[in-house]
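Researcher: Next sequence.
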Amino acid sequence: MTVRPGSAVPDLSPRDPDWWRQAVVYQIYPRSFADADGDGLGDLRGITDRLGHLAALGADALWLSPFYPSELADGGYDVIDYRAVDPRLGTLDDFDALTAEAHRLGLKVIVDVVPNHTSHRHIWFQEALAAGPGSAARARYVFRDGRGADGELPPTDWRSVFGGSAWRRVPDGQWYLHLFTPEQPDLNWDHDDIREDFRTTLRFWSDRGVDGFRVDVAHALAKDLRDPLRDLGAPELSGEDALTALPPGTHPFYDRDEVHAIYRDWRRVLDSYRPPRMAVAEAWVPNDRRVRYARPDELGQAFNFEYLQAPWNATALRRVITESLSAARAAGASATWVLSNHDVIRHASRLMLPPGTGTDAWLLSGGQEPPVDPAAGLRRARAATLLMLALPGSAYLYQGEELGLPEVADLPPDALQDPLWEQTAHTQKGRDGCRVPLPWTADGPSYGFGTGGAWLPQPPSFASYAVAAQDGVAGSTLELYRTALRLRRKLTEGENLTWSADATPDVLSFTRSNRWRCVTNLSGSPVPLPPGEVLLTSGPLGEGRLLDPDTTVWLG
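Model: Next structure:
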């Protein structure tokens, strides 16, 4: 990463078109970041007002989760209009102001694009419902006649991610495919209208100054829609875990080989800009398949979910890191690392759960079975963060992790907004616990989130995690992140690491190409610190230059 002389901001200009390869990207969930108009829902003006926080943190870019018009059947991922702003969140002028301010501060802007499905309120789907069976309008989606004597049975046994059949019947008797909620009908990517419309969408936001795109459910666009559609034979084969049970590229709707032609086409659009627009795939597929999405002639990056899912175990993490770097290198991509996002339990809580603990059951218990010690969870989360930030490649942060926020696991049932709660007949509490609005101040009706309340209730403990409570406080998690990102920018060089031969099995130790070293103690006992100047630690060092458990140190 190039740094302008005398400046603390990275050079994100056209002179550095590969800025994304080792960037720190900060994910914003717009409805939960900051509320400028006091209606309890975060908005674009609220984000713009708080962009100084990201600049002071040391992020290189921000990624905006969907802010498009939406019924909120799936937290904004049910898009009614891909080239507009939800009126509850602002206007296109507000978006332009946000982008301009971000660029003024040296921040790149990445937006979510949701190509697998639309909202059922999208104009195309409304046309499809009105037009009837066999119409050109229905060909943009996946409509089929049902099975059974009167078509009363779904066309296949495919299951929705949110539970139940992936098919919903309409009044005229046909069924449409929805791999997610019924309010999210799947598009038919064999149709030229779909491909051309998304080219238009990529150009629309690129023309407005967007620097990149995060591609939602990137692995599901291409489907085997040849009639007769084939059953999978077992419910579990409709899930992403089935990708290891079927020959690669042959699942009827996940990770089919044909999907890569779509992204090669997108790359031609993205490369027509100067600098080229970047893209990163959300693809829940095995590592050796995921890197295909990250090839230079496709999206360039893909999220590394193996790292997010790895247990707090030195052997497991060493294997995942080694394999991820090797696969990225072979594909000509840079690796990506993430610990939290809008879909998973925050890592300050998740990393403390014993192996084998069901996260759904833990959430249903209100976070009490087993209980998580917040102080121990924060200590481990800080160590995990310094480890992640030392790795070659791009690091994706999720809003609030720089404050050390834990999962809000005890949200009452009547407060839940995630459709998973209803879709699964109250057997999965959903993702609301990681989407609770951020605390900016230690007081106020929503801890500075807005002038009124917040769309999800914040616990009283948020007061101690607030930005104002940590700003300038030595040893706070916020100051740890600021220091780490500042050092990372100075230290980062090359995209390789070398594992230390002198480390014990429960310690992760590696050096980067310019000889600085990262050491993480995942054992249950203090270990001697290797030689070197201490640059940063995630927690206090033990007496006699010992590295305590659940602590990471950077050495010069």
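Model: The mean pLDDT is 94. DSSP finds 16 helices and 18 strands in the chain.
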